């Protein structure tokens, strides 16, 4: 069952959903908009080895915007700290953003229940596109789980700003040959 915008607001007021800062103007019929913060990360190495911690460069998005080149990839994050210990958040691109040629968070749209922090957006631009800090770039819906709840306590808990891949920390790499 998906929560309506009115129910999202009620659950925020009752502290069952975290959205900080909260702007009531960002509520939609069954979601809430998330905005882009002012920092992006780019991977330095053109080849990512999932067993090795990747190096990244950090870039501030200026107020006049940052041009994303066609077929480029970077990591951004929400300005908002979001999450819930009662509901399952899902992140989706805003249709207007997608129609402008920017794929947002298409690889990990399901956020684990209990995860509270900023959302890292995987930004893949198919066209030349300028992004701005504060731009509404995604939306989050909330779903009611069924069954016993186990809260998330993984490596991305408490994220602040964009987070690079932490796949190198996964324990299954120890059993694979180098």
TrEMBL record:
Give the signal sequence positions: none
**Which CDD domains did the record assign?**
trimeric_dUTPase
Gene3D superfamilies linked to this entry: 2.70.40.10
Tree of life domain: Bacteria
Against InterPro entries, the record matches this protein to: dCTP_deaminase (IPR011962), dUTPase-like_sf (IPR036157), dUTPase_trimeric (IPR033704)
- Which GO molecular function, any one, fits this protein according to its record? dCTP deaminase activity
- Name of this protein: dCTP deaminase
């Amino acid at each position: 069952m998906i929560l309506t915008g009115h129910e999202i607001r009620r659950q925020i007021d009752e502290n069952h959903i975290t959205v900080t800062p909260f702007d009531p103007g960002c509520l939609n019929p069954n979601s809430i908009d998330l905005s882009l913060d002012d920092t992006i990360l780019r991977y330095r190495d053109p080849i990512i080895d999932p067993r090795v911690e990747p190096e990244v460069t950090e870039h501030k998005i200026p107020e006049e915007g940052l041009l994303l080149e066609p077929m480029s990839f970077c990591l951004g994050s929400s300005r908002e700290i979001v999450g819930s210990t009662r509901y399952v958040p899902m992140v989706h691109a805003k249709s207007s953003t997608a129609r402008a040629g920017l794929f947002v968070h298409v690889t990990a749209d399901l956020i684990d229940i209990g995860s509270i922090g900023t959302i890292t957006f995987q930004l893949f631009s198919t066209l030349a596109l300028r992004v701005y800090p504060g731009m509404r770039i995604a939306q989050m819906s909330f779903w009611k789980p069924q069954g016993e709840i186990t809260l998330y306590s993984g490596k991305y808990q408490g994220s602040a700003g964009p987070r690079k891949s932490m796949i190198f920390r996964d324990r299954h790499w120890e059993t694979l040959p180098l």
